[in-house]
Design goal:
With about 270 residues, the protein is mainly α. It has three domains: about 70 residues; about 100 residues; about 80 residues, Alpha-Beta Plaits, CATH 3.30.70.1350. The chain is built from eight helices and three strands. The protein has a three-stranded mixed beta sheet with strand order 1-2-3, covered by helices on one side. Helix 8 links the parallel strand 2 and strand 3. Helix 1 runs antiparallel to helix 3 and helix 4 packs antiparallel against helix 5. The chain is elongated and about 85 Å long.
Length: about 270
Amino acid sequence: MPRPRSVTLLAVVIAGIAGINALGVVTAIRRYTVLRELPLSVSPAYLVLSSAVWAVVFTALALGLWRCKHWARLGTPLAWTLYVAAANLGIKECLYHYSRRVGRRSGSTAIAAAAWDHRADALCSLVVLVGLLAAIFGGAQWAMADDIAALGIAALIMLSGLRLFRDSSHELLDAQADPILVDNVRQVAEQVAGVRGIETLLVRKSGIEFFADIHIEVDGHLTVAEGHRIGHDVKDALLDEFLNMRDVLVHIEPYPHEHYHHPTGRDS
């Protein structure tokens, strides 16, 4: 039978994914120096190599689908496919629990995302296993079980992609860090000698590290040098207490703090 339209569409989509990965390789190579300066959880070389590998894999898969001449509906799956699906289910589930523990210890969103990738693969293997069992032992009335399992896998992949997109967007948009971490940072800063209060505290995450922007209030009668020293004490205390704190930007405000009205309409 001729190549189905669905296969043609799938080949085009896979070719597009291959092109995106190839573009990622070119961009990463051109911006390699910039990537080395960023607080990434993995080496830039890993990003280049992984994108290159996926570009080759997706290109080969797209060409294979496009150039295949003979298409026919497969019969009942072979029994050995059950063992493959079951083994993949066990391996992926173990990898999920291991990556999840590592992600929690390191605080890395990337590792946590990788853990959920393993969980999604495990769920897909479970769906495949159920579909194969139904197709092999269910008889003719369950012949469509394999196709239904494929639709279930597609739904799981879509849900996993949406969840990863949500989490990544949350981090890329510099959202405020976890409230517990923010409270801990506030408590450490308030314990520094000379700090009378915390006016503003912003903590954002970048990769596996954090950046803090803090406005501390000090006695308004202190000299500039004394206020500057207290600001450095706050920065040093936060960097010593939180090992994954990359940098702290400290602003000095007089205590009691008064909001001055600017002609532009902005208050400070």
